[in-house]
Design goal:
The protein is α/β, with parallel strands linked by helices. It is built from 18 helices and 24 strands.
Length: 557
């Protein structure tokens, strides 16, 4: 077979008009708002009076990521295509890619090989403008906040306590810490400021958790932007910004419908990162997938310690969702890397390194089964260099936990390579499960942090920096202690130290800062050296991306 890049495969595959995809789902024509021929927004009215019971909810998660790659989105898409091939009505629900990673280190983020959502160029770049709307709403609030201070500061906002940052959907470390408002009195009040990447904005989290326009507006109004001189929180509602912000977001709230290469319907909507936010697509998109399909296949970002934990403890808790099965994606290559093998030597059989790296996979699987009470299957993205002995070792170790290993060949074969995984997922969905959360939201903030650190990360505990202890006291006094916790932590380790691979022991989680995202409805704990504004690598992926005279894009993964 001639090797083709992801973008070449996507560009050579004929697509169906999006109206055909919508009609196949039974979506009335009046609910379909076309954005060209191959993408559309679906009205929220589609969820009303459909008369169908919800389908089964399947979460695809993964081991702790490495540069060797895991293929979580690819597996998610291929699994849905595989379910369709065995006669099941499946719908995909994915996050939208951020321009940061697209131009930074990852390249495209719409799946890979013959398991992609398309049109992949549109999805990876501006798509339907959702991220631009989120950034505009975020920055409108920032502008109104600074204008309020400039125009007399009637609320008595202390500029030293402002927590609201500006946002841009690009990896730009230069904007992490800035001073603005310079140039004299007419140009604003000088203060320290900074930017977050748009996917880390609380507005993104709010959009992904909102259940309606009215809920969106209420959540926006609850955003805490800073504090007064007498330490009272100041909200977007007090700045009278929520209505205008909601007006900017009214179309962005509608889920986007596209298709896979095999024409499986796919809702691609919202895109918070799982290392610095809650890492799941929108509740509205997931609900549509559940309402319109018998099986809704969704994913959560990075490893199961981040995206899956937040999917369960934040998204499912808030939206009342109950998952039916979990797929944990792994590769032999990545597990050998967790076992200490350098990237240049991953093609060689190394059972000792594989066995040393396996605890990472087993810990994720055990967490899914024992902490959250859900049935799981391990999907191995097979590479040509994987040996039978390595695959056999994987199967034996997972069997000890009562979990099956299924080879996934969706990158090379599309849905055909996902049929075995689909059969196992259907079987798991028929099992009764005992889904539960990692912690009770009525517990104290320190107790919630301890539960996540000890039960999910297998840490010895949590240590709060002096600043975090002060913030903890303030959050408790303001009554925010009943909210769930969103951990901002490196994606490369169970610990908060990216260099500790595998399943480390003998560490504590260092929480340097605590803040409230009152509109989203959770607290954010920043651990280690995690940043909410990434930087570009030495050789950005953007250097490989180009467009020719006809408008055909190349180099996008």
């Amino acid at each position: 077979m001639e090797w083709k890049s992801d973008i070449e495969i996507a560009q050579s595959t004929p697509l169906k008009p999006i109206n055909e995809i919508a009609a196949g789902l039974g979506i009335p024509e009046e609910y379909v708002e076309n954005y060209g021929r191959y993408k559309a927004k679906i009205s929220l009215d589609c969820l009303k009076n459909s008369g169908r019971p919800d389908g089964r909810l399947i979460l695809v998660t993964a081991i702790t990521p490495t540069p060797a790659g895991e293929g979580k989105t690819t597996t998610t898409v291929g699994l849905a295509d595989g379910l369709r091939r065995i006669g099941k009505k499946a719908v995909v629900a994915l996050r939208e890619p951020s321009l940061g990673p697209v131009f930074g280190i990852k390249g495209g983020a719409a799946g890979g090989g013959y398991a992609q959502v398309v049109p992949m160029e549109d999805i990876n770049l501006h798509f339907t403008g959702d991220f631009h709307a989120i950034g505009a709403a975020n920055n409108l609030l920032a502008a109104m906040l600074d204008n309020h201070i400039q125009q007399g500061n009637a609320l008595g906002i202390d500029p030293r306590t402002i927590t609201w940052k500006r946002a841009v959907d690009m990896n730009d470390r230069q904007l992490r810490f800035i001073v603005d408002g310079l140039g004299g009195r007419v140009n604003g009040t000088p203060r320290e400021d900074g930017f977050e990447i748009t996917v880390a904005s609380e507005v993104m989290a709010i959009l992904c958790l909102a259940s309606s326009i009215s809920d969106l507006k209420e959540r926006l109004g609850r955003i805490v932007v800073g504090y007064t001189y007498d330490k009272k929180p100041v909200t977007a509602a007090q700045l009278k910004a929520a209505g205008a912000m909601a007006a900017l977001l009214k179309d962005a709230l509608k889920p986007n419908l596209v298709q896979t290469l095999e024409h499986t319907p796919a809702f691609v909507h919202g895109g918070p990162f799982a290392n610095i936010a809650h890492g799941c697509n929108s509740v509205m998109a997931t609900r549509m997938a559940l309402r319109l399909g018998d099986y809704a296949v969704t994913e959560a970002g990075f490893g199961a310690d981040l995206g899956a934990e937040k999917f369960f403890d934040i998204k499912c808790r808030m939206a009342g969702l109950k998952p039916d099965a979990v797929v944990v994606v792994a590769t032999v290559r990545a597990l050998k890397m967790h076992g200490g093998v350098p990237k240049t030597e991953l093609a060689q059989e190394n059972l000792a390194a594989l066995e040393k790296g396996l605890p990472n996979l087993l810990q994720h699987v055990r967490n899914v089964k024992e902490v959250f009470g859900l049935p799981a299957v391990v999907a191995i993205n097979r590479f040509p260099q994987d040996t039978e002995a390595e695959l056999r070792l994987l199967e034996e170790k997972c069997a000890e936990l009562g979990v099956r290993v299924v080879l996934s060949e969706v990158w090379a074969k599309g849905g055909e390579g996902g049929m075995a995984l689909a059969e196992e997922v259907v079987r798991l969905c028929e099992e009764e499960n005992d889904f539960r959360f990692c912690y009770d939201e009525k517990e104290s903030i320190p107790e919630k942090l301890e539960h996540i650190a000890r039960r999910v990360y297998h840490a010895d505990g949590v240590e709060l920096a002096a600043a975090a202890r002060k913030q903890l006291q303030q959050l408790e006094e303001l009554g925010f202690d009943a909210l769930p916790v969103c951990m901002a932590k490196t994606q490369y380790s169970f610990s908060d130290d990216a260099s500790r691979l595998g399943a480390p022991r003998g560490f504590s989680i260092q929480v340097r800062s605590l803040k409230v995202s009152a509109g989203a409805g959770f607290l954010v704990a920043l651990t280690g050296d995690i940043m909410t504004m990434p930087g570009l690598p030495k050789v950005p992926a953007a250097e490989r991306i180009d467009v020719d005279e006809s408008g055909r894009i190349s180099g996008l993964f």
